[in-house]
Fold each of these.
Amino acid sequence: MTLLIRNGRIVTATDDYVADVLCEGETIAAIGRNLTAPGGTEVIDATGKLVMPGFIDPHVHIYLPFMGTYAKDDYGTASRAALVGGTTTLIEMCCPSRSEDPLEAFELWKSKAEGLSACDFTFHMGVTRFDDDTPPKLRQIVEAGVASFKVFLAYQGFFGVDDTELYKTLRLAKELGVIVTAHCENETLVAQLQQKLLAEGKTGPEWHEPSRPQEVEAEGVHHLMTFAELTGAHVYIVHTSCDGAVQAALDARRRGVHVAIETVIPYLVLDGTYAQQPDFEGAKYVMSPPIRSADQQPLLWNHLASRDIATVATDHAPFDFQQQKEMGRDNFTLIPNGIPTIEHRATLLYTHGVATGRISLNTFVDSVSTQAAKLFGLFPRKGTIAVGSDADLVIYDPDYRGTISAATHQMATDYSAFEGWEQIGRPEWVTVRGEVAVRDGAFVGELGSGQFLKREPTHF
């Protein structure tokens, strides 16, 4: 297929100019003014629109057995929702329990995406146990094209690793050139605080945040930084929710630690009062680390504007309010953690970041696309608009106005955390490797067309 996008305002992490983009087959063939194309070329007039590289969500959960249930989306609903939101590549957390074989888990997670996803996809391989059998299996997974690991300093007895396992994982990652993504809390402190609150009869969702306060997250980051400094491993802190955690990472960066920082869109637009809503409505907003007090939001926005925070992801973990979130009605520790956001990450960031002047368009592109590509071995194939790059493109209409609602979203969940919120702009057209997947804001792609992206380690 040949596609010509005319007169769009091309925005990358560093550039902003008006030009045409010619896509031939799966890649970008030419960029310039007044380009010509052969007969039969589909031509899109992007006058007045923004043309950006396809967005990359570096932190999603789609297939997820967790807290006695399973995440609601599959790759059919999730990739459709992602594409409508402009996301063309997903990086999923492959999260086996401590009792599962990592090779078998990797093949299982991969099988859930192949033949169903309309997005391109890859994985962070969860390391939830480290024994004598682990290194050769992780080496095989890296050879298969996975260049990042995931560790949890939380979820004691299920996902969490101890300090010996953490050290060995980081040391192996350094040897292999693999970056380690990390959920930073302190599982012992969380477990003790949960027990204390429940013993006091504090069982509602409003007590989730006090059981995992900011100090616990900041301590988890500091703990990881010590291990990263001593091993030389490159690390990436997922879903950073508060200034204390960011500062712990920045302090380490100034000491020479190789650390990148992610936040997720709920922390930028929601505050702790949402989890305090009565009649168990607050359960819709339970995620870990928790949504923080409103005073943290401007601090996170400032860190994003300065690009100290590299990426804005989702930590998409979709569970229904009915039946699933309600599992924890009498005990907040049993509420499945997560907020479904894969569809609305970019529009929320544009609405509350770009349109308000908090961040620039270039920083927007950097945080939703380019940095993820660079950190996780996909650049310049993904994450930019350049000749030879994959023709993953988003034509964004900044004049569109709409309302978010569970009645119209593509995700499988029975609620939206942003019900009734106004949005400014939307991805009007989206292409994946030159094929139109979204036209006039509606999904028109082909389920199963997404490819597994093999990546080479780059963090030696």
Amino acid sequence: MAVGSRGDVAPYTGLGARLQEEGHEVTLATHGLFEELVRSRGLGFHALPLDTQEEMTSKLAASGTSSPLKVTLEVNKVVAAHATPMAQAMLAAARSADVAMLTPAGWIGGHVAEGLGLPSMGVYLQPMTPTREFPPCTVTTRSLGGWGNRQAATTLRSLGQKPFSKAVDQLRTELGLPLMKPGAWLAQVDAARWPICYGYSPIVVPQPADWPEWNHTVGYWWPAPDPDFKPAPELVDFLAAGPPPVYIGFGSMPVEDREALSQLVVSALRRSELRAVVNTGWAGLNTAGENVCTVAEVPHDWLFPQVAAVVHHAGAGTAAAGLRAGVPAVPVPFMVDQPFWAQRLRGLGVAPEVIPFRRLTADRLAAALTEATTNPEYRRRATDVAARLAREDGAAGVLRVLNQLSRA
């Protein structure tokens, strides 16, 4: 059960495909916007309500992206507004299941699994378990001290459930379950040693020493490749016509002034004298020019190994794709967990700096691009990380937990 934008869904196509190779039947319950993505990878599909592109883009563009905490709360409100139909869709999807696998925003499925007597587990793309080692990744990158970090994450888990209380109470009543306050329900989940697999590499985020043994940092789940993908001839020609370009794209991020951002990108490319492949994304970038090739969706695993550096919003999936390709990064985080991943890229030595979107200028972007593409140390470090990631098998960790659940 995957709730969110494309980056919150695509990794589960790869995980699902691997589980099917091992003999499991897999249905991905997610938004209708991603039905083609899911079915084209050979997975079952069950629709969840909410058009994340339309509703999240409009709401977040209106509210602004200056405060990560504010954005996190706004995202929660968007999902909470659809909580009742979301719960019913999850219930319908789970009735034919043997195991429920839940993403962080799909946590209502935990009540569904409890009511149906299904074993369940978390499959998370961001570190959500409270720890002393760093603060909640969706709110801040500034340490609050050991006690403060852990307490902030614990409090955020409970607060995040409050907007859903009415829908959850209705669902639990329908399923014949006793009503519970969010904190009490979370305590029950923790006491049951509910397993969570984290789908990112311990190279990027080492597992905190104070996490319980039933939390597992297993490695990345790479999106399943598109079997029908054929690159546009103009893109192939552009790549072959000169030195490797840089990639610039901000994925599913909304912007208030797409023309201003487009002109900023064009200006930065002119100052750095670089060629670029620019992904229009949800921002709708318009950057036509002699040294620019504009694209819509192009698989990162095909494109990124052919570029000199990647400029992106530091979403978990795009940041991982850049690391996998072994290319330097210029992270421009907008909101939620993106500053966290941007900081990790900087810490790995694959990015010259982190440029928060609200502080993005043409001069700063041009300078970062020049540093990323001319200093060989960034490429060397990125290549080293890519080689280490290639030796990991994130899906194998999920399979181990599934086998344990089946024996329980």
